[in-house]
Amino acid sequence: MKIVTYLRVSTARQGSSGLGLEAQRSSIEAYAAGRNATILREFLEVESGKVNTRPELAAALHLAKVTGSVLVIAKMDRLSRNAAFLLTLRESGVKFIAADMPDANELTVGIMALVAQQEREATSTRTKDALKAYKARGGVLGNPNGAAALKRAGKGNVDAVVTIKGNADAFAADLRPIILAITQEGTVSLGGIAKALNDRQIATARGGVWHKATVANLLARLND
Q1: At what angle do helices 190-199 and 157-184 cross, to 10 degrees?
Q2: pTM of the predicted model as reported, rounded to 2 decimal places
Q3: Which of 62, 54, 55, 64 is nearest to 96 (CA)?
């Protein structure tokens, strides 16, 4: 059995650090060893899962087609969460297998593709609804009630602390459904959550970008 392997990471940093890459490679190599398969070539793509134009995947499919090989990936979500793209791939004429579900048939893959697309659309809807609800209450992404606003209001230190804490609690509460949606997708690390928030163009309470520390503070406030 001849196989062509395809690995994908979302960022150049992941590609250079091997984060997530070694786990994919180990899963594929274990699959190959269990079936005494020969790996002709490995293709590595550094690309977002939302983008369907992938030159490395196209090259992998071409090599698999011309050599009569099987395209092997570590997990189904390494290809895409876009149902139309995954179903098109299924119809490409190239047999492909996910090492995490090697016995799946075309029907299984089709169902999973549709479920993945539905979840992606539901996540997008939840994010938009949460932001819409926040704005409906007069909220603005960033920190519209910072120190300058408190000084203009002439409030003292005690009132300032209470107001700042109240604003921070409200901001955290507004992000609760978004954090829940992100973790339900399987992203639970501080770095992963920070990236997901930044990808959604959601600013921190002070209008900045998310980092591990700011995510940790947010989660601590939500769990308080």
Answers
A1: 90
A2: 0.47
A3: 64
